[in-house]
Amino acid sequence: MEYNPMLPEVKENPYPYYTYLREHAPAYQIEGLGFWALSRYDDVDFALKNPSLFSSATFLANMLGDLNPVPEAPSLVSCDPPDHTRLRKLVNKAFTPRIIRSLEPRIREVAQGLIDQLAGKSEFDLVHDLSSPLPVIVIAEMLGVKSEDRADFKRWSDDIILATNRMFTVGDEKRIRESIAEFRTYFQAVIAARRTDPREDLTTALVQAEEEEQKLNEWEVLSLLTLLLVAGNETTTNLIGNMMLALLDHPEQMEKLRADPSLIPNAIEETLRFDGPVQGLVRQLTQDVEIAETTLPANTLVFPLVASANRDERKFSESERFNITRDTEGHLAFGYGIHYCLGAQLARLEAKIAFEELFGQFPALAGTDEPVTRMESLIVRGPKSLPLVAY
Questions:
Q1: In this predicted model, what pLDDT tens digit does every residue of 264-322 receive, in sequence order?
Q2: Which range marks the domain in which residue 75 is found?
Q3: 224-227 — which CB contacts under 8 Å span 24+ positions?
């Protein structure tokens, strides 16, 4: 069985391919890309736990090439210590558990407002009406983006994600470059404004960030804003979408969740394991490494498939079964260690509130006969739209 994440049938449902890889080719060189895909839990876990062997320094270069929105500075997801240590230490201050908890009332207010607009409707689109605007509004408010600019904010994010696809059209590329230019111009102006007129927002916090006199320069702030723009909404949008799809495909789990909403946090963890928003990451070996009886030479590009690892039956029993009461401890959906997802707790909170409010408003939900189309990305997985019928 040929595995290539570029193929439409793989994008539609990669999991049978992952099963084949785990059993027959746990270290598999992807034809045409040159990447070596790692599919077993222990191998992916090893890669994530050893950043000195599996470097992140070329992540954006290999995913985006010259479409990197901020080539002037290292990205948090595309650098190694000591740069990573300094950047992470500075930005972590904005994502402490206390700060995330303090956002709950506002997130719930936003979710309630979006769902109130659906009252009386017999059909709506989960992505368009809830899972997309909710995290966009939240992260935009955190960054101090004007409400009238949120549509641009989302468009820029979508185009940067599309840039990771490697199969976009000439028209797509033109639009992506225009979005990147617009994004840079917009936030360079915001950064300059916050230096002279600070406000109570995350952009100001980054501009003023200082730890042991290691301030962020303009390009580093812009690079972090790019990461927050994309990761701050795409992860949550796709987590909510994937969770609803899993529940629709497993109605007995949907009923269990409705009967006991206290299971929502664990259902979120099971969604992250079963069909998480991130399929894999790109790393580059700093020295020869032997994996699955295969010697991978230094400088080899490696694709640790976290989504495959999370379905490895060696780690999770009945791994192909969606079970919202499962013990999901050890799943790798948000990475591990120094590159653990900065916004993981925010994504969890937004998804929890979204489903609490959604179930509170609608006694029953069902899918339609319309086919579900997926995001065009090698890294991100989630529905582009998800029509639902409300009863």
A1: 999 999 999 999 999 999 999 999 999 999 999 999 999 999 999 999 999 999 999 99
A2: 8-364
A3: 224/75, 224/76, 224/87, 224/91, 225/143, 225/187, 225/191, 226/69, 226/70, 226/75, 226/160, 226/183, 227/75, 227/76, 227/77, 227/342
Query: How many domains would you assign to the chain?
Result: 1
Distance, in Å, from the CA atom of 108 to the CA atom of 148, rounded to the nearest integer, reads 21
| 34 contact partners, CB below 8 Å, separation of at least 6 | 301
Structural domain contains residue 49: yes
Kind of pairing between the strands at 283-285 and 301-304: antiparallel
Residue type, 243: M
Residue 386 lies in a domain: no
Enter the DSSP assignment of 201: S
CA 219 to chain centre: 23
> Rounded CA gap, 247 and 182, in Å?
38
Establish if 2 belongs to a structural domain.
no
Task: Give the span between the Cα atoms of 33 and 5, in whole angstroms.
Answer: 10
Query: Could you tell me the CATH number of the domain that includes residue 82?
Result: 1.10.630.10
Question: Any bridge partners for residue 125, and if so which?
Answer: 387
Residue that has been written with the tokens 């736990």 in this structure? 49
Q: How far apart are CA 19 and CA 16, in angstroms?
A: 5
- Position of tokens 């529940």? 247
Q: Lowest mean pLDDT: which of 3-12, 253-262, 286-295, 308-317?
A: 3-12
Return mean pLDDT, the chain: 91
In a domain, 227, yes or no: yes
Burial 150-169 (b: 16+ CB within 10 A, else e): bebbbebbbbbbbbbbbebe
